[in-house]
Amino acid sequence: MNDTIAAISTAQGVGAISIIRVSGDEAIEIVSKIFTNKNFKDASSHTIHYGYIEYNGEKIDEVLVSKMLSPKTFTMEDVVEINAHGGINTTNKILEILLSLGCRLAEPGEFTKRALLNGRIDYTQAEGVMDLINSKTDVARKIAINQINGKASSMIRKLRDELGLILANIEVNLNYPEYEDIEDITVEKIKKSMSDIKSKISKIISESKTGEILKEGIKTVIVGRPNVGKSSLLNNLVGEEKAIVTSVQGTTRDSVEASLLIDNIILNLIDTAGIRDTDDVVDKIGVSKSLKLIDEADLVLLVLNNNEILTKEDNEIIDSLKGKKYITIINKCDLPKKINDDDLLNKVYISATENVNIDGVKKKIKELFNLEQIETEDLTYLTSARSISLLNKLNDEFK
After folding, report:
1. Is 245 in a helix, a strand, or coil?
2. pTM of the full predicted structure?
3. How confident is the model at residue 372 (pLDDT cuts 50, 70, 90)?
4. Which terminus, N or C, of the chain has the lesser number of Cβ atoms within 10 Å?
């Protein structure tokens, strides 16, 4: 990390401004070679300066340049940010000049990596930076902010401190038994303390599922036999023609994806190929993919026909949903009822073609995932697979 890195920090494209960020020991020196403001090099930290980027006697752009000295920067290194006009050519030209003067092009995420390695942030906070960039909802943004500002890290540090205190007390009891002012540690006390910590770890792990839903959304798969109305349901839920709808059996031969928001939670919808016995090679691939998606889903929307009795394929799909969260959507409720639905769970009656009771499906999803009960005040969750995996390993050690 002894070299000085540079990169365009704003999105590529035409805009009002773009920012080229430089970080490293030579950041001030390199930028000073092409910045016309002669006061810049000796100026105080955290100041902004007006001037031009000039190279080989040619003015490249009129800019504002921010100067920030270590260690009070994101990377804890000297940082310079050049605020240029947002043209693609101009921005790339300034970056090209910086690279020719000794900067190295930063790798994706390298500024955050340097902040991590220099002790400015920890792993959880670094993951929070990426989550904030990728956040799709206001709730996901709040979770990411809580990771960046250290709330999630503080939660884990408290657990670590509790474990450290137990170990310290055991150490003192073993090595300094003559001290009368220390707490006597017994096996029962240790068991009680460890049990309390295990409960806290288990709570964090269980809540991480809620955090994952808030951050990534609910992976929802729509399944059923051909021509039961799966594609029509998808189109009605998202409010646009995402999937082709015809009376021809097997119109949907591959999955179709779409998203919508329910109470600020993303519903990632996947309309699948109709599940049926078939000799068609392409249809078989589609059916196989549908069954695989069921296993991977957080929620399954099973679509059945109100005016047909349950078929062998229907019952096989129902059997495959044991242990899964699913909603039974009985479509074509405007037609005479023939289905025997006494034993079916989480039923919602709709007419996809007539757009009847689509809101009932959304209401059932909210009930099934307790979306109205999810805590949205203190959004301190662990959402990265790395963090959750480490906690699961620790939890296993208590068994």
Report:
1. coil
2. 0.58
3. low
4. C
